[in-house]
Write a structure and sequence with these properties.
heterodimer; A: alpha/beta; Rossmann fold; Alpha-Beta Plaits; 6-stranded mixed β-sheet; 4-stranded antiparallel β-sheet; 14 strands; B: mainly alpha
């Protein structure tokens, strides 16, 4: 399998302000790689370094085996980028902007533009300045896909899109991925990452905390435990290592558990439960653990 | 080429406005000034003596002994028109670079398969073509205004050339400042400020007869007195002009190529 994105100890500092620190990961061909973290975690900084919009302080980033800064124009030929906020030349009409984009890529993409615009329900005769946020996003999506790139870099691609359009976008991304396109998908909406991605890098305060497959992340020893008891559980009863997010509602006590299950079962057994539910935590719940 | 043509298209309207403005200025002002001066031809010796050493004419860089010739009048008008010419040059230079950050379109443009160097040079070339068109229109209007007058064509060419040379200087200066400041929502007032400050420096240089101050005002690199007396341009200032242009061009280019693109806001 070919490595499409290879980031090695990438660091970007803005004076004393930290951007990203020692970020390393690799994305393989045809993979959908998720990139999650709260605002300010360094997702956009990493993406901007990949796109040569900013120069890293140290470390290297390579796409298709080429240096992201030195070979930026050659790399860009095969990369489609959807920024989190899309901005274009306001005075232009959508069709002129898309035609200009195609010319910048050196391709004749009129058929592809027509197809994508029709699927995204985008009126190409309108002026950019008259478009809603969602419609501008659609222009960004068409502009990122019209040259049939081999790599898609998506920074919060669904922001501003209504649920129906989000679904259309995911369908398109699925099709692209099926024909071999690699996707780097940055988001703080975990359900999207969960639905789309094969693997995920979790970012916090400019650092990669962990890189895991979505399945592993979900299946790891994190469990959502709910215990129903007739009498309230004493405060200290669940004061054991591995318990977090402890909450009580009516007869139910729920918590996230990570650790030795025999020990947990012993403790729960001692509470004389009426009912016990153990389930996979949502990615949001797992995610919260990294940001405590 | 794509960026070049797109930039040029964006400057269509302002280009027409500037070119028409300069053409009207020279077509209307030349006959007016010429008739005023012709009307005072009888007192020529007296006026020349009066204007000799006059700070106002000195500041404008106009030599009174050529005041009563057709090219002397043209040189006087050029001395005024260099200010708006500089504003146009600096305005385009500042705007063409900073607008991508102001409109937040830098991400769009700089993630396409065109190098930063290519973008900078395309923008520079488009701006130069815009100024070239303005200058050509101004040249044509100047010739129309001077029709029927007897003048040395080589002197005229050297006088006229100061116009595009000053425009080019301010264009390159504007582009370089544009790479440094990144965001500038209103480039024209800033361009006006830059053009005016250097104009005042030039006036000071002329009155104080300071070559050091003159080195910082491109308006005074090619004085009309030198041209009309047949000396042409002073080689030292030609070298200085080229030096400034090269230095500013190289600085602007390298900043643009290496600078981090600010995040959209």
């Amino acid at each position: 399998m070919t490595t499409v994105i290879d980031i090695d100890r990438l660091t970007k500092r803005y004076g004393t302000h930290r951007g990203i620190d020692d970020v390393s990961f690799a994305v393989e061909e045809s993979e959908i790689f998720g990139f999650i973290g709260p605002n300010g975690a360094g997702k956009s900084t990493t993406i901007r370094a990949l796109l040569a919009l900013i120069r890293p302080t140290s470390g290297t980033a390579r796409i298709f085996g080429r240096d992201c800064i030195r070979d930026a124009p050659e790399i860009a030929r095969h990369v489609g980028y959807i920024p989190s906020e899309t901005f274009f030349y306001d005075g232009m009409r959508v069709r002129d902007l898309l035609a200009y984009t195609a010319r910048l890529y050196g391709v004749d993409a009129s058929d592809r533009i027509a197809e994508l615009a029709s699927r995204m329900k985008l009126d190409t005769t309108r002026k950019i300045r008259d478009l809603s946020l969602g419609n501008k996003k659609k222009v960004g999506i068409v502009a990122a896909l019209l040259h049939s790139p081999r790599l898609l870099i998506l920074d919060e691609p669904t922001s501003g899109l209504d649920p129906l359009m989000q679904r259309t976008l995911f369908e398109i991304l699925d099709e692209e991925n099926n024909r071999g396109v690699t996707i780097l998908f940055s988001s703080h909406v975990l359900s999207e990452v969960q639905a789309m991605c094969d693997r995920v890098a979790i970012l916090k305060e400019g650092r990669v905390l962990e890189i895991q497959s979505i399945d592993d992340l979900r299946k790891r020893s994190f469990k959502h435990v709910r215990v129903r008891t007739t009498t309230p559980i004493p405060e200290h009863a669940l004061n054991i290592e591995g318990v977090s997010d402890l909450s009580h509602a009516d007869a139910w006590t729920s918590f996230i558990y990570h650790g030795d299950f025999t020990r947990m079962f012993d403790v729960v057994h001692g509470l004389h439960p009426e009912d016990v539910l153990i389930s996979e935590p949502s990615l949001d719940e797992i995610f919260l653990h990294y940001y405590q | 080429m794509t960026v070049f043509l797109s930039e040029l298209r964006q400057y269509r309207r302002s280009l027409v406005a500037w070119a028409v403005g300069f053409a009207i200025a020279i077509l209307f002002l030349y006959p007016v000034f010429e008739s005023i001066i012709a009307g005072n031809a009888d007192d020529r010796a007296e006026l020349e003596a009066l204007l000799e050493g006059n700070p106002t004419t000195q500041a404008l860089g106009v030599d009174p002994q050529y005041f009563f010739t057709s090219l002397g009048v043209y040189a006087l008008l050029i001395a005024f028109l260099l200010l708006p010419a500089a504003v146009q040059g600096a305005g385009i230079g500042l705007g063409i670079i900073t607008k991508e950050n102001v409109q937040n379109t830098a991400d769009f443009l700089l993630t396409k398969p065109i190098s930063r160097a290519g973008v900078y040079l395309s923008k520079g070339a488009a701006a130069m073509v815009a100024l070239f068109v303005t200058s050509t229109v101004f040249l044509a209007a100047s010739l129309v205004a001077l029709i029927g007058n007897d003048f040395a064509i080589d002197h005229f060419v050297l006088l006229f050339l100061v116009f595009p040379l000053v425009q080019l200087f301010f264009l390159v200066l504007g582009m370089t400042i544009g790479t440094l400041v990144s965001r500038l929502s209103a480039p024209l007032p800033v361009a006006l400020g830059i053009a005016f400050v250097l104009y005042v420096v030039g006036m000071f240089a002329s009155v104080a007869q300071s070559n050091a101050a003159r080195a910082f005002s491109p308006y005074k690199y090619f004085p009309s007195g030198d041209v009309l007396s047949g000396q042409g341009y002073a080689p030292l200032f030609v070298i200085l002009y080229v030096g400034w242009l090269a230095a500013l061009g190289v600085i602007g280019f390298f900043i643009f190529v290496r600078k981090d693109v600010p995040t959209a806001r």
